[in-house]
Design brief:
By secondary structure, the chain is of the alpha+beta class. Helix content is 39%, strand content 21%. The strands form 4 sheets. Strands 11, 12, 13, 14, 15, 16 and 19 form a 7-stranded antiparallel beta sheet that branches. A 5-stranded mixed beta sheet has the order 1-10-9-2-8. A hairpin with a 2-residue loop joins strand 14 and strand 15. The protein binds adenosine monophosphate. It comes from Natrinema versiforme JCM 10478.
Length: 583
């Protein structure tokens, strides 16, 4: 397809406000794209490379202005281009206002042009363009992206100049937008999906699935056209090509248990998402970020982990966490110091080391697992990771999950108290909290669905008086824990719940010192406390309940802080509970 044809169609789409009509135009564009369908499908979305490919043109706006200025004639400078841009506000409009063509020079050749390219030659070239194909544009941009090292800036500008020099106004408009990632003609991912389905008469869901596994709109368009639905269904994950990460919504334990009955519960690690692709066959280990950027070189620990512990091709999804010398997690900011680092990685590694924790397995044993339920995928993950532990040939099933390095534990439970204690352990171990996952759910790349929920931070908090507590057990026997919370009811205090979670051992010790002087009575493990200390607590919900004397119960109360600035007389009242419950 000629680039002029593409530009013409892009112009029509650009001018079309109605989504359905846009899909119809893209459908025609794809149907007419011939051999260049892959490129056309990408260009329409403003992409030069497939979505899985993190290659960038690595060219700044100023280099693009320079190329435009050179192609526009000797009397035009980059500054002129910038000034016009300031007036017009959009690079496509700027490029379309110049007359290109006929500028001679190295770039005209390297860009694939000839002496007489650009119709006419000479500074008066009328820029009718017309001979450039979308393939030439794609190939030249690939060369431009590949230019590295000293002299690469000039080479990039030369190549781009060569292209602009052969453009008509409309071609220049869309070339400039493509190069600067500003295509913006209203063609999103859903548009291309629908257009592929309509153009080649294949069901949308099958196109969607093929897109999820391949992350390549061009390839999916070609296969839909040439091989139909069977071809699409035969598309599989490729080890080495990233998949979009499944995302989580905020949510509550209450909702999770209501919807799924049994919830999958995992620790939420405060790190950065990584997708590990390991293939011993081609000796390649690649690590990708949440945005599918290749971050392999920045994270040698993950590569070493794969080399030491994996044996067959796999795709694993997980989190990379920064750790201190004894392996305890460090805050997210520390991971960032490592994550996209290109230079001095060894030095950075000395300062902050990282370790991967995997919570999902998308491909193993030659099989794609996206459509398997979470529990099956987690079992596969376990067996992939256990192999390395099980060198002695002992019974792999007998190995404790906690002893499998790199495995994020998955609990299945319908018991809110167990979820609370998993949450408390996660916090105590220095992690962010918990993730709740539907154990039956498939892996939906790129989706922020309901099947994965990060536990919502508490929006409201209550200031409650601590009126009782219990001595702990085992290693916590000398600490007070499980604190009874009360709110004001006129001159009295009425109970509203108990809080035991969100408190580390260190904090428990501090709270015990603070509360012990206020013990009024003890019976077994239980103590009554004189009202003196106020806790700020978070919760998921306020329920009417006969369990506590206030007539209300806090669902999933969590300790936030002591309020040394508050007396019991300033604690929250039953009236506030009533108001909050009504909200
Ligand atoms: P957020 O970044 O707050 O939207 O939370 C979702 C992110 O939590 C995911 O993209 C992961 O990077 C991270 N995460 C940490 N632990 C887990 C886990 N066990 N399962 C899924 N995601 C996790």
């Amino acid at each position: 397809m000629k680039f002029a044809t593409f530009a013409d169609r892009a112009g029509t789409i650009d001018a079309e406000p109605a989504d359905l009509e846009i899909v119809a135009h893209v459908r025609e564009l794809l149907a007419d794209a011939g051999d260049e369908i892959e490129i056309v499908a990408r260009f329409a979305q403003g992409r030069v490379f497939p979505a899985w490919d993190s290659t960038t043109l690595d060219i700044g706006p100023s280099a693009c202005y320079e190329a435009i200025a050179r192609a526009a004639g000797t009397n035009v400078s980059s500054n002129d281009v910038e000034e016009r841009l300031a007036e017009v506000g959009e690079i496509g409009d700027v490029a379309a206002r110049y007359d290109f063509g006929g500028q001679q020079g190295l770039g005209a050749f390297t860009g694939g042009g000839t002496d007489d390219s650009g119709a006419g030659g000479g500074t008066g070239g009328n820029g009718t363009g017309g001979d450039l194909t979308v393939r030439e544009v794609a190939e030249t941009l690939a060369d431009l992206a590949a230019a590295e090292g000293s002299g690469s800036h000039d080479r990039k500008v030369d190549l781009l100049f060569g292209l602009f020099n052969r453009c008509s106004s409309e071609e220049a408009r869309y070339l400039a937008r493509l190069v600067l990632s500003e295509m913006r003609i209203g063609v999103g991912e859903g548009t291309v999906r629908d257009a592929i389905a309509a153009a080649f008469d294949v069901p949308k869901e099958r196109v969607e699935r093929a897109l999820q596994v391949s992350n390549d709109y061009g390839r999916v368009a070609r296969i839909a056209r040439d091989e139909g639905v069977d071809g699409l269904d035969a598309m599989e994950l490729d080890v080495g090509r990233p998949v979009q990460a499944m995302l989580a919504q905020a949510g509550t334990v209450t909702d999770a248990l209501e919807e799924w009955e049994t919830a999958g519960v995992e620790w939420k690690y405060d790190g950065a998402r990584v997708q590990l692709h390991y293939d011993p066959g081609d000796g390649e280990t690649r690590v990708f970020s949440r945005n599918m950027e290749d971050v392999t070189d920045a994270l040698p620990e993950v590569v070493e982990f794969a080399d030491e512990r994996l044996e067959s091709p796999v795709i694993l999804d997980g989190e990379v966490v920064a750790i201190d010398e004894d392996g305890s997690p460090l805050p997210f900011q520390e991971v960032l110091k490592r994550f996209r680092r290109k230079h001095d990685v060894a030095k950075a590694r000395e300062d902050v080391s990282v370790r991967p924790v995997f919570f999902d397995c998308l491909h193993a044993g030659g099989e794609d697992l996206l459509e398997e339920p979470l529990t099956t995928r987690h079992d596969r993950l376990r067996s992939v990771l256990v192999d390395a532990v099980d060198e002695t040939g002992s019974d792999a099933a007998a190995i404790d999950d906690e002893d499998i390095e790199g495995l994020s534990l998955l609990w299945r439970t319908d018991d809110p108290d167990e979820i609370e204690s998993i949450d408390a352990d996660a916090l105590e171990a220095g992690h962010e909290g918990i993730m709740l996952k539907n154990p039956e759910s498939t892996y939906s790349p790129g989706r922020r669905g309901k099947h994965w929920r990060k536990r919502k931070p508490d929006v409201e908090t209550l200031d409650c008086v601590v009126t009782g507590a219990e001595w702990g057990e085992g290693r916590r026997a000398t600490f007070l824990g499980t604190f009874e919370l009360s709110v004001r009811a006129g001159e009295d205090l009425e109970t509203v719940g108990k809080v035991a979670t969100g408190i580390t051992d260190e904090k428990l010790e501090e709270l015990t010192d603070l509360l012990e002087p206020h013990i009024e009575a003890e019976e077994g493990q239980e103590v009554d406390l004189e009202p003196a200390v106020v806790f700020e607590v978070g919760y998921e919900e306020i329920q009417s309940s006969p369990t506590y004397s206030s007539g209300y119960a806090l669902r999933f109360p969590r300790f936030q802080a002591v309020r040394p600035d508050k007396e019991p007389a300033n604690a929250d009242s039953i009236e506030r509970l009533e108001r909050l419950q009504g909200q």
